[in-house]
Amino acid sequence: MLNVNLSCGTGAEVSSNGLVDNIHSFKASDLEIDLAQTQKPKPDLTGLAFGTVFTDHMLVVEWNSQVGWQRPRIQPFGNLSIHPACSALHYAVQLFEGMKAYRGADNRVRLFRPELNMNRMRKSAHRACLPGFDRAELLECIKKLVEVDEEWVPHSDSASLYIRPTFLGTEPSLGVKKPSQALLYVILSPVGSYFSTGAKPVSLWADSKYIRSWKGGTGDCKMGGNYGASIFAQYEAVDYGCQQVLWLYGDDHQITEVGTMNLFLYWTNEKGEEELATPPLDGIILPGITRQSILELAQKWREFKVCERYLTMSDLRHGLKENRVKEMFGSGTACVVSPVGRVLYQGENLQIPCQQENSLASRLMKELTDIQYGRTLSEWSLLV
Question: Are residues 239 and 351 in the same domain?
Answer without folding.
Answer: yes
